[in-house]
Amino acid sequence: MVRPLDERFRTARDLFPECRVETVQDRIVVNEPGTWQHNTILFRLLLQLVGTAARQGWQIWPNITVHLGEHADRYVPDLAVVPASPRMHEEHAVHGDATLLLADVVSMGSGYDDYYVKPCGYAPARVPLYLLIDPFQRSVKLFCDPSRGGYATEVVVAVGEPLPLPAPWGLAVDTARLM
């Protein structure tokens, strides 16, 4: 008998606590910790977001599972920005619609999932903003205006161009400072 995916997900998460464990299209994906380049990009993004987040009383979390629905995938973005008291599904999973921004840095094996699969899961769960930083393409993509059918707006800029974040952010990401 095959165990339910949620049970296998919890087992994998328990077996690999130092890794990011996600379910993506009925697959359990175990991602190793990021490289120094990956982590440097995240640090530089964090430096740009932290002032606004602190002024608004928001929190920035690494390595939190995003609950997208009862029978949906479970993604773990590189960074999640959440309000002071977000609605939680479990202690390790925040509801997608309780987030303010999710961010991922594309790694060698994650491109397809990051560009195509995750936006299709995040939009129906009402994740308001999904920021995707691609060091290989030297671009930054922002998905916004979620609906059941996907994101209505996708903005792509080359590294070096500013990327304005919509309200309530009041901030443009300086993409030149990311890489």
Automatic annotation (TrEMBL):
Top-level division of the source organism's lineage: Bacteria
- The Putative restriction endonuclease domain extends over 17-167
> What SUPFAM superfamilies has UniProt attached to this entry?
Restriction endonuclease-like
Q: InterPro entries of this UniProt entry?
A: Nuclease_put_TT1808 (IPR012296), Restrct_endonuc-II-like (IPR011335), Uma2 (IPR008538)
- The answer to keyword RNA-binding applying to this record is no
Q: Where is the signal peptide?
A: none
**For this protein, what is any one GO molecular function term?**
endonuclease activity
Question: Do the record's keywords include Nuclease?
Answer: yes
> What keywords are assigned to this protein?
Endonuclease, Hydrolase, Nuclease
The name this protein carries in UniProt is Uma2 family endonuclease
Question: Which source organism?
Answer: Nonomuraea longispora
